HNH endonuclease
Amino acid sequence: MEAVILAWTTAGPQWSGAYVTAQDTVRKTGIARQNWLVTSDLPLSVGMDVWLLVVDGGAAMRGVVGHGTLARIAPVPREDGMQLLDVDFDLLLQHGDQVPFTLIEQRLPGLLTGETTAVTVDGSVAAELRRMWTEAVVPNQGWVEPPPGALPSRLTRRISADRVKRDPDFRRTALAHRGSACHACGLDMEQTYGEKGRDLVQVHHLTPLAHRGAECDIDPLIDLVPLCPTCHVVAHSRWPDSYSVEEIRAMLRKGGFMRGTIMTKEQLEAESAAARILRG
């Protein structure tokens, strides 16, 4: 089976802690782990997709609100026949932004019946559920990767990522303060690519994370600077001390040609003009 759907009665005890707290954890760390009980007769496997389906609360809340992966299955069922699961949720939507239950009933009638608490799906059913999720989820500004759940878990790999750079509020604050042009090469992606490029500029830590304490607070007005994707890759091509903005500017002043080639007069003049611009 490709995925399991967990039916969540929000008024019940299934969810540990506050849902908004778990949302904040996902936003900061990438995942929020939850324990879940299901019947032990389900064909489950570690790594399969998990969909969180709210089944109470009226039309404004009912529907698929979260995605995750099955991280662990308890080796032995409990005495009451239930199986304990560990689920790593990587995206939890606001109530109201979910895939509506009415839409699920239209496209996948009979998916959940009666008192069903969980069901596994595969093939066309799993594909249709993923399609509805992808239609409902709006990626954060500046994200170029598909949002969690848009691809089957077997086709993806979870990697460690700096969630601060992906925090939409931090990013918005940094760009409002410093502007949207790359601080290394000067590229303004909206001016160059039009509206489609407006949200693709990235933000970079001025102080490398390796030099920060685990509890260090981030001030987006001071700590984050806009870089285009190319300059951002160059910055992180050195570890643990990434290249500074000034160092990247120096590379640009010295670059502009390929080793072994003879630069034309026009290229030399263009390089000289670019150097004057970079020096300000």
Observations:
- The two ends are 60 Å apart (CA to CA).
- DSSP finds ten helices and nine strands in the chain.
- The mean pLDDT is 86.
- Strands lie at 3-8, 32-39, 49-54, 63-73, 82-92, 99-100, 118-121, 202-205, 224-227.
